[in-house]
């Protein structure tokens, strides 16, 4: 069954890659070569950090907001993040899923739930007006920061020894992963909340890794096909991050497995909180601009 899951990931990823590359070739802007090269570096750094446990969505959002030369409109941030990191997450999953044994039925149920949630979420997020995207991402970033702080302070649930979910706990897990899959399309990473949920359900924290990586490996390509087809992402930025991210993920998983990240996580918390405030300020500014336009008309 695990081989079937890995095979399905490979097939779905190949299909997404075809759509992604064709869209990039047909619509790329040769004037954005500088942005593409810079995005390669961003992808390498953020997915290297992702592979060692820091996360990629929040860090990428922060870098893109700080660097004004890499112009990604807030409305296109969720699509850009998801498309950019889809294939690096697949690379991480293919390298990691065979390491930890977990009940296959539980794993399949959780993956299907996340994929279903992401497919619905991508359709909604790609059509939201910019202000709502800014508010959604601001809230998502605050949630991410809260989970990171809880992890740093050691107040995250410790979990149990189970490697499977049954009955009511399985239903809760499936519903929870459905919600997390939908939230992932809004720009909130699935890793930290999924790890917290799995621990609260009494599972061994190690069980979170195949669930997280398996979910993201399916969610990314499937949800991102919608973003690509609707043009709801910045092509040069996403492609650069994708290529750099695949390299960063592979190098991290092959050569860096126990890197201490305690102080790095606190730095990420500070950056994420700053970025969340920036998102809320942008939403307020957008609201003021809309009021002025209405008064002028």
Q: What's the alpha carbon Rg, rounded to whole Å?
A: 19 Å
Average the pLDDT over all residues and give the rounded result: 83
Main sheet attributes: strand count, strand direction, barrel closure: none
CA-CA gap between termini: 62 Å
Please specify the SSE layout and strand pairing.
Layout: H1 2-27, H2 33-51, H3 57-66, H4 77-96, H5 104-125, H6 130-153, H7 167-184, H8 191-200, H9 208-229, H10 235-255, H11 262-296
Describe this structure in a few short sentences.
Helix content is 76%, strand content 0%.
What does this structure look like?
By secondary structure, this protein is mainly alpha-helical. Helix content is 76%, strand content 0%. The protein has 11 helices and no strands. Helix 1 (2-27) runs antiparallel to helix 4 (77-96). It is globular, with a radius of gyration of 19 Å. The termini are far apart. It is a multi-pass membrane protein. Its main location: membrane. Belongs to the 4-toluene sulfonate uptake permease (TSUP) (TC 2.A.102) family. Keywords: Cell membrane, Membrane, Transmembrane, Transmembrane helix.
């Amino acid at each position: 069954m695990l081989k079937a899951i890995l095979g399905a990931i490979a097939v779905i990823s190949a299909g997404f890659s075809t759509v992604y590359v064709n869209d990039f070739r047909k619509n790329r802007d040769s004037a954005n070569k500088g942005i593409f090269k810079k995005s390669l570096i961003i992808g390498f750094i953020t997915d290297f950090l992702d592979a060692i446990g820091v996360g990629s969505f929040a860090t990428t959002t922060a870098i893109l907001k700080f660097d004004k030369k890499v112009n990604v409109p807030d409305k296109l941030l969720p699509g850009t993040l998801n498309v950019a990191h889809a294939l690096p997450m697949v690379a991480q999953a293919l390298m990691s899923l065979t390491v930890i044994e977990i009940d296959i039925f539980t794993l399949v149920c959780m993956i299907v739930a996340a994929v279903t949630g992401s497919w619905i979420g991508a359709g909604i997020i790609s059509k939201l007006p910019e202000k709502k995207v800014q508010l959604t991402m601001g809230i998502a970033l605050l949630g991410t920061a809260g989970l990171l702080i809880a992890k740093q302070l050691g107040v995250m649930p410790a979990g149990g020894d189970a490697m499977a979910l049954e009955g009511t706990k399985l239903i809760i897990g499936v519903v929870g992963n459905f919600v997390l899959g939908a939230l992932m399309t809004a720009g909130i990473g699935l890793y930290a909340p999924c790890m917290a949920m799995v621990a609260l359900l009494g599972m061994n924290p190690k069980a979170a890794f195949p669930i997280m990586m398996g979910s993201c490996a399916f969610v990314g390509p499937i949800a991102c096909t919608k973003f690509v087809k609707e043009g709801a992402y910045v092509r040069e930025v996403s492609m650069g991050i994708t290529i750099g991210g695949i390299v960063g993920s592979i190098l991290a998983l092959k050569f860096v497995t126990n890197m201490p990240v305690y102080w790095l996580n606190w730095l990420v918390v500070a950056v994420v909180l700053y970025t969340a405030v920036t998102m809320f300020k942008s939403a307020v500014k957008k609201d003021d601009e809309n009021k002025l336009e209405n008064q002028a008309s």
